[in-house]
Structure formats: structure tokens, C-alpha cells
Amino acid sequence: MIRLYEKGERRVAVVEEARRWQEAGIITPEQAAAVAERYRPELVRVNVFIRILLALFTTVGVAALVALPAVIFDVKEDGFTVLCLIFAPLCAWVADHELIAGRRLYRCGAEEALLLLAVGMLALAVAIPAHDWGHSTERLAWLAAHVIVLAGAVLLTVRYGYALAAFGAMLALAGLPFHLADVLLWQSPGLSRLILLLLLGAAAIWAQLRLTGRNSLPRGYVWSLESMRLAAWAGIYLDVNLFAHRLLWREWLVWTPGEWQLPWSDPLCALLTAILPVAALAIGICRRDRALLWFGVVSAILSIITLKYYIHFGHLAEELTAAGLLLAGLAFGLLRWLRAGSKRCRGAFTAEPLLEPRLMGLAFLLGARLLFIRCRFLPLRVPSYMATTTGFRVMPVLLSLRRVWIRPRGAAIWHSRQNAPVGSRENIDRNDK
């Protein structure tokens, strides 16, 4: 990732962490404002609505700018290819040098749209001229355009950390086996699905391994890796889902039920439809991964809707009633199990509401006062684990609180106790401590 974004994202992470602490009642608005002032990022940011509008206006403007000479000079395929070859590097240069390096725009929509348009126009410049060169050449040209889109999306992800580009790269990767089957005239329709499963599985494993060191990665890379992992999980689920297997894939790939269809048999797809949500939920709980938990919940709902049309154990009303009672009993059992543990918790899980702003704020303020009154007179040693990205987010907030609020109060308390009369309660407490 470019150094401007890597440095700016660290400052943005500190400011957003302070804002979340303020919303939870841990710090006051004055303290959050002090942290935001100290770690103000050197990047221009906008909200999501302005970002969408800027992206739309940029896309319409570039399309109009390309279409104007095409209409005036009445260009054909070759002329449109020349226009794409001219405007593709121009859009990339304006986005990288003028908007990002010059104006310091950070995910404002305009520079993202220009970079994506540059990749798209470069792919069109390769595919369009092959329209009159024969059917086989045209297929190869569109395959080359597909590879250019995949490579461009990967390049944007690596250089700028765009999660949208990472998602587009996964879409291009998922469509590559079917494009290869069309070009190479594969006769077995199940081979494309098998290659898709292997590619998405490898991408999901690679993203998961990279996310194990997420504390040392920039925030843009973390978002991109999470997008890749979720897209891979979703693609694998759609590949093995029983409903998609029996309706979507057979109609799209012209796959008759009488043909040889191993390993894509109905029992195997039904088993994988049930196993994948359970695996996602288990991994999400073990690794405390919110994204995988949400994917597990959504895919579990889709699996229930899918399987109830093909696998029946009774009437639908009876199955729904039994499932509701089972889930309610499971939730009640988990709460009882957590509350029966030591200190009403089991490991990192508890049944108590930890994010209650009032209780969490009072507990934190008490601990912060004790910590920073001592840190006022002793050197503050930063542990090694605080050198990670999480530590970078937390430590500046704590240091700012120490300077803005707790240090003056700690000094006042210390001097008041030093000047207390001999035999007073403040002096007795100080001597005891």
C-alpha cells in the first residue's frame, strides 16, 4: 500500500477508536476532541453518501468525455479502441497523481471510480478489436480482457487497499473457470464447478492465513482480506447449495439429471449445504470473528429454507415449532452454562452485558485514574504487544487522556496529599500506601 494511505489509516483508526470510546461512555467529548485534534489525518474524507455521488458523477463525466469525440468523429471499433487506450492511462494518472498524491483524497469515490474505469477501458481496448477477427479469436480476446480485469483488480487492492476492488477480483476469479470452459470447449460441465471450488477454497485459506497477522496490517488490507474471505465462502456455498445445484447449475450448464454427475450428487450437496453454515459458525465463535458469524447466520437461514423443500421429517408447522423450541432451549442452556462458570464466565464469554455504557464507563474511569496517577510520576513503559496495530489505536488514546485530563487531576491529588497536616486522614492513607 502507498505510504500516504498507510500512515493516514493509522491516524484514522486512532480517531475512530476514540469516537467509539466516547459513544460507549468511556471518555468525555472533550477528551475525544483532544485525541481527534492531535491525530488529525492528513487525508480528505467524505461520508458514504457524498462518496457514492462523487463516484456516479465521475463515471458519468468520464463516459461523456469518451463518447463526445466518438460521436463527433463517428468512430467505429478501431477508433473506440484508440480512445480507450488514450483515456485509460489518463484516468489512472489523474487519480493517482492529482487526486490521491496531490489532493490527498481518501476513499472519496472520485479517485476510486477513475481507477476502476481505467481498468475497464483497458480491458475493452483488448476485447473490442477482435470482433471482426473470427469467433475463436474473439473468444481469446475476451478471455484476455477477463484476465486484465482480474489483474487490475488485484493491483488496485495491493496498491490502495480497496475492498471493492478485492471483491471485484473475487468475482473475476469465480468467472474464470466458466470462461475457460467456453474457450477450451470442455465437455464435462462439472469440471468448471470443481475448479471453481478449488480456486475459492485456496483464496479463502490464503485470506484466513493472512488475517492471522491482522494486527500488523493496514486497515485497508484487513478490509480487503475480509472481503475476499467472505466472497470465497459465499461462492463455495453457492457452488454446493442444493437449490442452486438442482435448478441454477443444471439449467445454466445444460446438465441433464441422467448424466454422470459425481462428485456433484444430490446427497453430497445436501450434506455440504448443512455443514458449511455450521463450520462458519464454529470458526467464528472460536476465533471471535464477527464477519464469519454473520455469514454463518445468513447461510444457516438459507440452508433451512433450501433443505425444507427437499428433506422432510414431518409437516412444516411441526418442523418450525420443533426448531423454535430447540433454539430457545439451546439459548437458555448456554446462558445457564455461562453463569455457572467461575466469575459467571467461561473463558472470554459471559452472559453479562459488557457493553453497557454506564457500567463500562464507571469501571474504566476508576481504573484509568489509578493507572495514570501512578504514570504521572513513573515512566510509562509500552509493552511489546502494544506495538501492533491494535496497540497503535489504543495507546495514543490513553496517552492523550493522560495529558488532557488525568495528569492534572493526579498532580492536584498528589500535591494536596503532600501538603496535608500530619495526622490527617489523607496523610495516614498516603503513609499506609
Automatic annotation (TrEMBL):
Keywords: Membrane, Transmembrane, Transmembrane helix. The keyword Glycoprotein does not apply. The keyword Transmembrane applies. The chain crosses the membrane at residues 48-73, 79-101, 113-134, 140-158, 165-185, 191-209, 230-248, 268-285, 292-311, 317-338. This is DUF2157 domain-containing protein.
